[in-house]
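Sharing a chain and its predicted structure for anyone who wants a worked example. Both blocks are below, sequence first, C-alpha cells second.
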Amino acid sequence: MKRSSEPRQLRAGTRHAPPLRTASGGAAMKITRQKHAKKNMGFYKHNFQFREPFQVLVDGTFCHAALRNKIQIREQLPGYLGGATQLCTTRCILKELESLGKALYGAKLIAQSFQVRSCSHHKDPVSGSACLLSMVEEGNPHHFFVATQDQDLANKVKKKAGIPLLFIIQNTMVLDKPSPKSLAFVQTLQTSQLVPEHQKQSIIQLKEKEGLAKQEGEKRRKRKRAGGPNPLSCLKKKKKTQESQKLTEKKKRRRKRIRVKTEAVLSMQKNEKE
C-alpha cells in the first residue's frame, strides 16, 4: 500500500490563527457606527420632533450590561447620539433592582444616579418593563428613548411608532434602526391629506438623503422662462381704407354745419332784440 506523497495541510499544533483586529479596523467600525447613529437620529428628529436634551429611559438590564462591559453611560452616550442627554429611570425600576439583592447592587447604584421620572404606579409598583411601556404610551409624547437589554421589552417597543431603542452589543452602545412600524407611520403621514405640503416635502427630502426609502423619480416643475413680446402687439398697423376715411370726413362736415346753424340763430336773436 503506497503512502501519499502530498504533505498534510494541517499538522498538530499548526492550525491557522484567527485574524487579529487591527487598530485601523476598530476605528473604521467606530466610524460606521457613528454614521448609522447619525442617520437614525436624523430620522427621529425630522419625523418625530426629537430635540435636545434627549430623554433616555434606562432600565436595570441596561445598567447591569454597562457595568459588566465597563461602559460609562453618562460620558459616552451624548457623543454617540450627537447631543446633550438626560438619563432617566422610574421608581418601579429602582424597587425592582432593590428586590433582586446583591447580584444587581452595582446596577442599582448606577440607576440611582439618574433622574427619576414620575409614573402612575405610586401605590402599586409594577415590573420595570411594564413601567417603561406605560411611559411611552399614547404616541410617546415626552419623546423618550428606551435603553434596555430585555428582548421581550424591545420587541414590544418596536411595535410602537416613534420610540428609539438603545442596547449594548460587543461592549458598545447601539441605537437600533427605525422599526417597520415607525417607517410605516411616516409613510402614512406622507400620503395623508391632513399633512401640510411643506412637511411632506421635508419627509421626502429626509428619506432620500438618509436612504430610508428608494428615491422616486418625481417630475420637477418647469420654471416659467421669460417669453417674447405678445405676437399681436408686433403686427403692423392696418391702413385706413377709403370708405372709413369718407365716413370720418362726413362726420367732421356735419359738425361744421351744426356750428354754422347755431351761429346764424344767435345772430338773428341779437338783431331781434335790437
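Comments welcome. The beta strands are 54-58, 85-90, 115-117, 144-147, 165-169, 172-175.
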